[in-house]
Write a structure and sequence with these properties.
Blueprint (H helix, E strand, L loop, with lengths): L9 E4 L5 H9 L8 H4 L10 H9 L3 E6 L3 E9 L11 H12 L1 E2 L2 E2 L5 E9 L8 H13 L5 E7 L3 H11 L2 E8 L2 E9 L2
Parallel strand pairs: 6-7
Antiparallel strand pairs: 1-2, 2-3, 3-6, 4-5, 7-9, 8-9
Length: 193
């Protein structure tokens, strides 16, 4: 069934049968797989492993957008922060977890609150401009509001399109800049209503 906000598109929780398709879909938008010109439409900074996707799906943290005969056209992840000591945690995520210890939202360090990592968010060109980002926001804010108080995300300084989308459509606040693996990122946070 279609979402009333996005005719012809269905938003649903991902399941284990989606893991390989999600990883393949994310890979299409990974910065290392895109030309300079393709990056202007936004990109993914971390290409997650099948194990990461399986864990995210198992905790109920991935929603997909489907259209055209159940083809995945986008996804969003909202997951609890991993243990920072996990060697498989990407450096950018480890840096973000460390920042959450110091950066405050509403006068309290983010790590002292119930917080989630939001992202990646990936929407294919066939679904862009059809309200999928707004639908993802509505679905995930509703789904996780009893589990989390704050969501955090990172956006590469080389990705102004995604930064604009996160601040203008999600209402995320740009709270800090940081470096990981020689690259620079924005650290953003938003509240679950």
């Amino acid at each position: 069934m279609g979402d009333p906000m996005t005719p012809g598109v269905r938003i649903r929780l991902a399941d284990r049968d989606d893991v390989s398709k999600l990883r393949e879909f994310e890979g299409r938008f990974y910065i290392g797989n895109l030309s300079e010109s393709e990056r202007s439409d936004g990109f993914i900074s971390v290409w997650h492993s099948a194990e990461w996707f399986t864990s995210a799906v198992d905790c109920g943290g991935v929603h997909v957008a489907e259209s055209d005969g159940d083809q995945i056209g986008g996804f969003i992840a909202v997951v609890p922060p991993p243990e920072s000591a996990d060697p498989d945690t990407p450096p950018v995520v480890r840096a973000m977890i460390e920042l959450a210890q110091r950066v405050e939202m509403n006068g309290t360090p983010i790590a002292a609150q119930r917080y989630a990592l939001r992202g990646p968010v990936c929407i294919g060109p066939e679904l862009r401009g059809r309200g999928v980002y707004a639908a993802f926001n509505a679905v995930t804010l509703q789904a996780y509001r009893h589990r989390y108080d704050v969501g955090v995300l990172f956006v590469s300084t080389e990705n102004p399109r995604s930064l604009h989308t996160a601040t203008s459509k999600l209402g995320a606040h740009d709270l800090a800049m940081f470096e990981a693996d020689g690259k620079h990122f924005h650290f953003l946070a938003f509240e679950f209503p």
